[in-house]
């Protein structure tokens, strides 16, 4: 049986602990290791912060909809806002160009969140048709060992 837990919270940083605690509880129940849970918490926190800071920047306030869905082989987390969308491919291209031509110590603040999510999760999908939806998937049993 697939388990699904849904949260709707105000798009404010003060409420992100609710998302992190829910994620932690579900991930422990599903058998994820501590390091995997910490990676998920960072990635989900980044997606939520992006929605709060960028999605509702010009709108003042809004809501975040977070859905945790147990998969046969892991956990899928959808973070959705109804705020201002952005051009995902343009953002990736702009950041990729900056990463290849700039020393890390000189990189501008912001813009690396999408890369961080991709590094920490097994699958990342971004939909920007109406608002923004970030879908993060972490698979059970995958080890993050360096080769």
UniProtKB/TrEMBL annotation:
SUPFAM superfamilies: ATPase domain of HSP90 chaperone/DNA topoisomerase II/histidine kinase
InterPro entries: Anti-sigma-factor_SerPK, HATPase_C_sf, HATPase_dom
Gene Ontology molecular function: any one: protein serine/threonine kinase activity
Keywords assigned: Kinase, Serine/threonine-protein kinase, Transferase
Taxonomy, superkingdom: Bacteria
Residues of the Histidine kinase/HSP90-like ATPase domain: 9-138
Keyword Kinase assigned: yes
Keyword Lyase tagged: no
NCBIfam families: PRK04069.1
Protein's name in the database: Serine/threonine-protein kinase RsbW
């Amino acid at each position: 049986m697939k388990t699904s837990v849904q949260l709707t919270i105000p798009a404010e940083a003060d409420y992100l602990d609710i998302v992190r605690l829910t994620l932690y509880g579900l991930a422990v129940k599903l058998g994820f290791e501590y390091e995997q849970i910490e990676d998920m918490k960072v990635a989900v926190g980044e997606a939520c912060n992006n929605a709060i800071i960028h999605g509702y920047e010009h709108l003042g306030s809004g809501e975040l909809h977070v859905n945790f869905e147990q998969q046969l082989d892991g956990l899928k987390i959808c973070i959705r806002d109804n705020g201002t969308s952005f051009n995902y491919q343009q953002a990736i291209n702009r950041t990729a160009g900056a990463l290849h031509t700039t020393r890390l110590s000189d990189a501008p603040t912001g813009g690396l969140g999408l890369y961080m999510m991709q590094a920490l999760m097994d699958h990342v999908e971004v939909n920007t048709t109406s608002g923004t939806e970030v879908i993060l998937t972490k698979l059970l049993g995958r080890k993050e060992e360096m080769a």
